[in-house]
Design brief:
The complex is a heterodimer of chains A (about 280) and B (about 375). With about 280 residues, chain A is α/β, with parallel strands linked by helices. Helices cover about 35% and strands about 20% of the residues of chain A. In chain A, helix 3 (about 90-95) links the parallel strand 6 (about 80-85) and strand 7. In chain B, about 75% of the residues lie in helices and about 0% in strands. Chain B has helices spanning about 1-15, 20-50, 60-70, 85-120, 130-145, 155-175, 185-210, 215-220, 230-250, 250-255, 260-265, 270-290, 300-310, 315-340, 345-365, and one strand at about 370-375. In chain B, helix 2 (about 20-50) packs antiparallel against helix 4 and helix 5 packs parallel to helix 7. The radius of gyration of chain B is 22 Å and the shape is globular. The chains are: A alpha/beta (about 280), B mainly alpha (about 375). At the A-B interface, helix 7, helix 8, helix 9 and strand 13 of A face helix 11, helix 13, helix 15 and strand 1 of B.
Chain lengths: ~280, ~375
């Protein structure tokens, strides 16, 4: 066992040297663990991890802020890995109940995703595999980077879960990087914020070329009428609306909020959408 | 004025206010200008409307008559009395025009509330059954004489319309309620269903009404022809209280635009807000409909246009819509009472003639916004 001071928890945490039973509270951590070849050692995940388990079923023991302690008693993880941000309170709760929880920083940019791969690899005794994965991701970022002049980049406003939480993001969220590498530019890039709700007047003033709305599930996508949303927010004169450049997508199809290794696929998907919408080459 | 604002802006910047505070101050200054301009326009519209009619009265005489009848200020107006002009202005035209202003304010503000709560710009104050409820009460009072008069000054038609409108909303709300809350979509659907049902009942009453049929139809189409000071005195307190209460919650209405869950996370008691807003919107709409009949499209179109001009912030949207609604409805009523002089058109026909094409234009504008979906 090693004792490591975790700055997110502000506590010392016991870390087994070669953990045999690993649990994850975050879908990005789950994906990293699977990519490092630790599917067999993964004993517990959250309800949002299933897309990253490659068809394998694993017990889901937690949501964002609640854990099923009876299930946790059964799966007996040596270590629980998660990210900071929304999972922090649950991490603190689990730590106070005696579990070995190690939150890593929520990625603020694509390079921090790579950094998290290396941290997790070290924690789970898979350093070589983590180095290989990190190198692969670095190369993929570089090859995916779209060479577009700043003026040609579409200015993008993205909203996550419209009319449920209506969250957008600033310069400190890694989605900012995803949009930039894909060839766009987040209209709130210059705000030193991660996730926040935008002032509708400010969005109108920023006049984005493209609006993207990400929904959690098909029911919510059906229930929200984008035309009504645009009218009620007085966005009729925004360039994206006037030119009909509005995109709606399910989170599982365009996982912009997922900070795991599959961000490269997301970049390529987004870039393909930008091209389809005619933003480059005109 | 712009120089003053610019100088104040420079002063604010030199005081190292945050960017947000400076932006808010600039926006708030702009809001004040908008409201002042609208108030001036409303006063001008009222004065102009009072001068228009079969008897030509110069604007100056109109102003003299109005000011002379104001408490305290009346003694400062010089000149001889104008008994005929005074009777026309004070007893005939002014109460009607003020009633139009009150109804315009009520319908516009109720429209803002319903569009905000439902997060749907196609909503209007009548979606929750108020119009059909009021129509039923008026039809019963006109055809069968059901009802009572209030203090001998207000007859049964507006009172019955008011009572049945509120009863209908109460019924719609309770049918739509699920557990501790009211899903807005369910409220909308129940409102549509109740509207249809009550419209069928009204149609039946029209069939058996005999000679009263034209009275019912005229009432349902909406008109200020019979409005006197009693109507104004009865409607004004309800509309004033309702509008002020709605404005107090303007910030919460802004937050609920983000979605009910987000609003809850930000500390808004969404169910309480919905109850208060629905009750207030229903109260002011019922008060309006009881004195004017059913005037369509004001509550739908005015908030929509004003939102395009001033933005979605309810702190400016509510007062701007109120004043704009008053101005537009006074203009519509002026057209209604002069266009086929000496006869009058119901003002609801004018608002429908103007509102319908605009509504169709809105629907067409909304098509084809989303070009890539959900793959």
């Amino acid at each position: 066992m090693s004792k490591i001071f975790n700055e997110i928890l502000h506590e010392w945490v016991d870390i087994p040297e070669k953990p045999k039973r690993i649990a994850s509270l975050s879908s990005s951590v789950t994906e990293i663990l699977v990519e490092l070849g630790l599917m067999e050692k993964l004993v517990g995940v959250t309800y949002w991890c299933s897309p990253y388990l490659k068809g394998v079923e694993k017990p889901a023991f937690a949501s964002v802020d609640k854990a099923d302690y009876k299930l946790l008693e059964k799966i007996k993880p040596d270590i629980i890995l998660t990210t900071s941000g929304i999972h922090r309170n649950l991490a603190l709760e689990l730590h106070s109940k005696g579990y070995n929880v190690f939150p890593i920083p929520l990625a603020n940019n694509l390079f921090e995703i790579i950094s998290n791969v290396l941290i997790i690899g070290t924690l789970v005794d898979k350093q070589r595999e983590a180095r290989e994965l990190a190198t692969k991701l670095s190369i993929e970022i570089e090859t995916s980077m779209v060479d577009v002049r700043f003026e040609e980049r579409p200015r993008v406003y993205t909203e996550i879960w419209p009319q449920k939480f209506s969250i957008t993001f600033g310069g400190l969220a890694f989605i900012n990087d995803v949009i930039y590498v894909a060839g766009g530019y987040n209209v709130f890039s210059e705000k030193p914020l991660t996730y926040f709700t935008a002032d509708f007047n400010e969005v109108a003033a920023l006049n984005p070329d493209l609006m993207i709305f990400i929904f959690e599930n098909p029911r919510e996508m059906r229930e929200v009428d984008i035309s009504s949303l645009v009218d009620i927010r007085a966005w009729r004169n925004v360039k994206a609306v006037k030119r009909g450049k509005i995109v709606t997508a399910l989170q599982r199809n365009l996982p912009l909020t997922h900070s795991g290794p599959s961000f490269v696929k997301t970049i390529k998907l987004l870039h393909a959408r930008f091209e389809e919408l005619g933003f480059f080459g005109k | 004025m712009m120089n003053i604002i610019r100088k104040l802006g420079e002063l604010m910047t030199s005081m190292n206010l945050s960017e947000t505070e400076t932006a808010y101050f600039k926006r708030f200054s702009r809001w004040k200008i908008i409201v002042i301009l609208l108030m001036v326009t409303l006063v001008f519209t009222i004065t102009s409307a009072v001068t228009i009619g079969p008897m030509q009265i110069p604007p100056l005489d109109v102003l003299k008559v109005i000011v002379r009848n104001l408490p305290l200020l009346g003694t400062f107006v010089e000149g001889g009395s104008l008994p005929l002009e005074e009777a026309v202005v004070i007893q005939v035209r002014l109460p009607r025009i003020l009633a139009a202003a009150i109804v315009g304010i009520a319908l516009s503000v109720a429209g803002v509330v319903l569009q905000g709560l439902l997060r749907n710009p196609m909503a209007d104050p009548y979606v929750i059954g108020i119009s059909a409820g009021a129509g039923l009460g008026a039809s019963l009072a006109i055809t069968f004489g059901i009802g009572f008069s209030l203090l001998g000054v207000l007859n049964s038609v507006p009172l019955m319309a008011f009572i049945t409108a509120l009863c209908t909303v109460f019924m719609v709300y309770n049918i739509a309620r699920k557990g501790g809350g009211v899903p807005m979509l369910t409220l909308l659907l129940v409102g549509i269903a109740v509207n249809s049902f009550l419209s069928a009942v009204i149609s039946f009453i029209e069939i058996v009404s005999g000679e009263a049929l034209h009275v019912i139809i005229f009432w349902i189409l909406g008109s200020f022809a019979v409005c006197n000071w009693n109507y104004v005195k009865i409607a004004l307190p309800f509309v004033t209280v309702g509008v002020v209460l709605i404005y107090v919650f303007a910030r919460d209405l802004n937050i609920i635009l983000l979605g009910e869950e987000q609003a809850q996370h930000l500390g808004v008691d969404t169910e309480r807000l919905k109850k208060i807003m629905l009750a207030s919107a229903s109260l002011i709409t019922a008060a309006a409909v009881s004195i004017s009949g059913i005037i369509g499209f004001i509550g739908l179109i005015i908030p929509h246009i004003v939102r395009i001009l001033v933005g979605p912030d309810h702190r400016i949207l509510i007062p701007s819509s109120a004043l704009s609604g008053a101005i537009v409805l006074i203009l519509c009523d002026t057209i209604a009472r002069t266009i086929i002089r000496p006869a009058e058109l119901p003002v609801g026909i004018i608002t429908s003639l103007l509102g319908c094409p605009f509504f169709i234009y809105l629907l067409r504008e909304r098509k084809g916004s989303v070009i890539w979906q959900g793959r």
